[in-house]
Amino acid sequence: MSETTVIIGAGQAGGDLASALRQLKYEGRIVLIGEEPALPYRRPPLSKAYLSGEMTEQQLYIKPAATYEKQNVEVKTGVRVESIDRSAKTVTLGNGETIGYTKLAFCTGGHARRLPLPGAEKPNVHYVRTIEDIEKLKAQFQPGKRLLIIGGGYIGLEAAAVGIKKELKVTLVEALPRLLARVTGPELSEYYYGVHTAKGVDIKLGAGVEALEGGDTVETVVLADGTRLEADVIIVGIGLIPNTELAEAAGLEVDNGILVDLQCRSTTDPDIFAAGDCANHDHGFLQRRIRLESVPNASEGARVIAATICGKDAEHNGAPWFWSDQYDLKLQMVGINQGYEEVVIRGSMEEHNFSAFYLANGVVIAADTVSRPKDFMMAKKLVAGRVKSDAATLSDESVELKSLLG
Amino acid sequence: MGLVTYVSFDGEKTTVDVANGDSLMQGAIDNGIDGILGDCGGGCACATCHCMVDEAWYAKTGEPDDMEADMLDGVLDPKPTSRLSCQVFMSDELDGIVVHLPESQF
């Protein structure tokens, strides 16, 4: 029987999976199905260079259409998968078409968590996940406008930086007591608070949003403490919900993402895989189950699936890493700092050039580097190698990090 | 538009057209060249698009800036002509350039 891999979701993971299969000389049919109208594109610039207008839609595309044709990948965009029949091994699309598969991959990503308040559906309340989201936002993203950002995570802070650059008046509210609370330590949170405040962002921490008031648009955001903030444009960046409805309906095990093993294979069905934001996978390096939201994680998952389908050994086991550009600062992070006992700063926060290393039981488990690519490259190796070190060594700039690798 | 020849670690040569202004990383991805990953999409943030420019061409590509040089310092087995291919942009000057790819980007 001839082979067909059907990929649901034409984002980073889906696009990468199709390419990786062809690079491994997979000879079967590959069908890549995306709900959005665009070819697979890079999402990170949506909150940065695409919002600021420095990048065009064409430049977001990971590859041009001709490349998929050349690789004999059938790309179907602007169409939903409605259902999956696992016993017949078919998927049925919104246009009625039914496609048989031998292997099926969920690369369905996620959607922006909606603000659960009346008024959140009004036309000046925006999210940052798709090209369409940014197209709507861009039209209102004009100099002098009062921009209110709800959420002090990567999306909120990157949007704030672009807002300042484009001369909007930026206010940011975060429900938790510090910025980037989910992804970094208090030292970095405080550092980024200082950076954004100095650039002119009015940041309110511990500020939950209670109500949205106005007419056709939201005009006032009311905080839990009664503070009223007027706004022309609102961006909500309060997290991502994995797209797992289809997997659940197909009877796959789902718990904060589609449950998959080290090969990204569903714990329920060995012919089904998942990668990217929608997958909750066993992680070889972290030695636990985790759902990650990052491009490197999506790409690695895609490569693991391709290798597994082609009968090669591969495991999802790279040390996770992330990056975020705000103003001219390059934040690069590796590892998950959860459970750290000590944080060590190397370099100078005042000079906007430093790294934070997180230690647990004397082992470097994570690092955040700010405009220090050399430290980042070494930190990747220290974290991946579970290298032991200490505060005196890591903070001493006369000691080359390379020397710790042994 | 100019020609770029990518040479894999085991000597396999692939020559493709790359538009002026496109990076050599994008050229590799557009043409399904194995050996270049480009995980960060060309932002000089990941160093998974490492290549070694053929010595005859290196001078024409110019020197890496500080950020790129620092990233290159941490790649597997850097060479004197190492570059991140996301930071080398096609131009008439580079028509015909040859770059060598490492066995692994990690």
Automatic annotation (TrEMBL), chain A:
What broad class of enzyme is this?
oxidoreductase
Which cofactors, if any, are listed as required?
A: FAD
Protein name in UniProt: 3-phenylpropionate/trans-cinnamate dioxygenase ferredoxin reductase subunit
Which residue intervals define the domain FAD/NAD(P)-binding in the entry? Answer: 5-300
The root-end lineage is: Bacteria, Pseudomonadati, Pseudomonadota, Gammaproteobacteria, Litorivivens
Q: Which Gene3D superfamilies match?
A: 3.30.390.30, FAD/NAD(P)-binding domain
What EC number(s) is this enzyme filed under?
1.18.1.3
Q: Which GO terms describe its molecular function?
A: dioxygenase activity; ferredoxin-NAD+ reductase activity; oxidoreductase activity, acting on NAD(P)H
Q: Where is the Reductase C-terminal domain?
A: 321-405
Query: What is the organism of origin for this protein?
Result: Litorivivens lipolytica
A GO cellular component entry from the record? cytoplasm
Q: Name one Pfam family in it.
A: Pyr_redox_2
Which keywords describe this protein according to UniProt? Dioxygenase, FAD, Flavoprotein, Oxidoreductase
TrEMBL record, chain B:
Full protein name:
2Fe-2S ferredoxin
Cofactor(s) recorded for this entry are: [2Fe-2S] cluster
Please name the GO terms that the record assigns under molecular function: 2 iron, 2 sulfur cluster binding; electron transfer activity; metal ion binding
Name the domain of life: Bacteria
Reply yes or no: does the keyword DNA-binding apply: no
Q: Where is the 2Fe-2S ferredoxin-type domain?
A: 5-105
InterPro entries registered for this protein in UniProt: 2Fe-2S_ferredoxin-like_sf (IPR036010), 2Fe-2S_ferredoxin-type (IPR001041), Adrenodoxin-like (IPR001055), Beta-grasp_dom_sf (IPR012675)
The uppermost taxa in this organism's lineage are:
Bacteria, Pseudomonadati, Pseudomonadota, Gammaproteobacteria, Litorivivens
Task: Quote the Pfam families the UniProt record gives.
Answer: Fer2
Looking up PROSITE patterns in the UniProt record yields: 2FE2S_FER_2 (PS51085)
Write out the GO biological process terms.
Answer: P450-containing electron transport chain
Keyword list (alphabetical) reads: 2Fe-2S, Iron, Iron-sulfur, Metal-binding
